[in-house]
């Protein structure tokens, strides 16, 4: 072998070692970067104070807590954001507690409610007979009829103060027959499809005919429109998709208003409800050209599903508090106990285990920091397992805190709401019976 060939082979081997060594170093570096970091740490003073308040109140079971000061701040944020002349309607399904609704009414000064099911509608007719209730979804006419019949019929006149939502000509005809058979006048609100495509009228001859029916039927009265557009913030800003959806929604609503103005006189049009928005979109309305009221509920307690750019000024005001039942070092999964040390070696957030009272809620742990569900062990509504790193500082009888991802179902799972104010639990608000 010549010296030249030997040198070439040596150089190739050296380069190969460098390449292999570099690849190995890159793999190790990538693995190090992929390895989770420890998210545990000291507890938040806010939650330690809330824990002390719960213990002081003798609360020992999973409980839904509403922070009254934060709730008030959210109400004030909402009202300050509304343009002049814009009304506010409380979304009752998102705040499903008579005491909570009444507090929001008093703080905001509104008498308008949006209600979504028959049991809640009837309950509020009795509890708050002075309110104006707009249905947030159409009810089967047979359900509406029960408000006039039987032992649980609504108080006299209450059903006539409801705005019954109508989405089709067929349903409008049914409600016309109901009103005639009971010799009452029903207020009818027309659902508009402004881009969500979940039903409702669009501008055109079908809508015009429906409005003419309302004008000509002595048992029906046109109360207004409702156009819901939660799809707008769900669309990306890229390529102008969100802006186009907003412009399209407002154009669809405006075209419906223009048709209505050819059927009803100016005085009638000035009196109608022009309802729009929800928590995700209410801050898009800077004037009353399209809508003269917005519906908001969830933004006042801000579950995690409402952690959006538009709702950044709002604060989380509702938490699930549940006691710790058991704690343990490490993680032991039945049948694969041997894997525990390897799990901990790879993921430092598997250093400690807690089992809580209850679990499997639509919620995310927020305190102590770093707690996470163990998907290998599985979820449990009896004793949920959570894991965290070595910085976890918690013991049995302490509380773990969660933020609900939504409010309408979660609020109904814990009995009376604990009202937290001034460092103490100062009140309990009952919730509605679970209903669909």
TrEMBL record:
Biological processes annotated in GO: D-serine catabolic process
Signal peptide location: none
Source organism, top-level taxon: Bacteria
Transmembrane residue ranges: none
Sequence ranges assigned to domain Alanine racemase N-terminal in this UniProt record: 66-301
Coiled-coil intervals: none
GO molecular function terms listed in the Swiss-Prot or TrEMBL record: D-serine ammonia-lyase activity
Record PANTHER family: D-SERINE DEHYDRATASE, ZGC:162816-RELATED
Protein name per Swiss-Prot or TrEMBL: D-serine deaminase, pyridoxal phosphate-dependent
Organism of origin: Maricaulis salignorans
């Amino acid at each position: 072998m010549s010296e030249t060939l030997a040198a070439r082979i040596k150089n190739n081997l050296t380069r190969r070692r460098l390449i292999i060594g570099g690849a190995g170093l890159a793999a190790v570096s990538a693995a190090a970067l992929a390895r989770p970091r420890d998210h545990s740490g000291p507890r938040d003073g806010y939650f330690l104070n809330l824990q002390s308040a719960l213990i002081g109140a003798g609360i020992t079971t999973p409980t839904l807590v509403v922070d009254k000061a934060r709730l008030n701040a959210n109400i004030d944020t909402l009202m300050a954001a509304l343009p002049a002349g814009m009304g506010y309607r409380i979304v009752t399904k998102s705040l499903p507690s008579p005491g909570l609704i009444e507090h929001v009414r008093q703080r905001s000064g509104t008498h308008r409610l949006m209600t979504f099911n028959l049991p809640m509608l009837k309950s509020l007719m009795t509890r708050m007979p002075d309110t104006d209730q707009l249905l947030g979804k159409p009810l089967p006419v047979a359900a509406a009829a029960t408000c006039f019949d039987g032992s649980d019929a609504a108080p006299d006149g209450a059903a006539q103060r409801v705005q019954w939502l109508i989405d089709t000509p067929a349903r409008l005809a049914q409600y016309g027959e109901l009103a005639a058979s009971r010799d009452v006048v029903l207020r009818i609100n027309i659902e508009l499809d402004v881009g969500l495509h979940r039903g409702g009228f669009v501008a055109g001859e079908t809508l015009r005919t429906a409005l003419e029916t309302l004008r000509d039927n002595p048992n029906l009265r046109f109360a207004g429109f409702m156009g819901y557009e939660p799809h707008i913030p769900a669309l990306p800003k890229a390529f102008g998709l969100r802006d186009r959806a907003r412009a399209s929604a407002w154009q669809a609503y405006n075209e419906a208003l223009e048709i209505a103005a050819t059927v009803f006189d100016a005085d009638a049009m000035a009196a109608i409800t022009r309802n729009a928005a929800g928590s995700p979109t209410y801050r898009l309305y800077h004037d009353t050209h399209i809508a003269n009221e917005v519906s908001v509920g969830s933004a006042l307690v801000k579950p995690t599903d409402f952690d959006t750019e538009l709702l950044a000024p709002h604060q989380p005001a509702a938490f699930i508090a549940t006691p710790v039942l058991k704690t343990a070092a490490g993680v032991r999964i039945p049948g694969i106990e041997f894997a525990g040390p390897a799990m901990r070696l790879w993921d430092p957030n598997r250093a400690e285990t807690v089992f809580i009272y209850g679990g499997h809620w639509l919620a995310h742990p927020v305190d102590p920091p770093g707690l996470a569900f163990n998907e290998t062990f599985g979820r449990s509504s009896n004793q949920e397992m959570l894991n965290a790193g070595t910085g976890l500082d918690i013991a049995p009888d302490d509380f773990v805190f969660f933020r609900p991802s939504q409010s309408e179902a979660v609020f109904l799972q814990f009995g009376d709401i604990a009202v937290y104010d001034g460092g103490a639990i100062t009140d309990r608000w009952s919730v509605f019976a679970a209903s669909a």
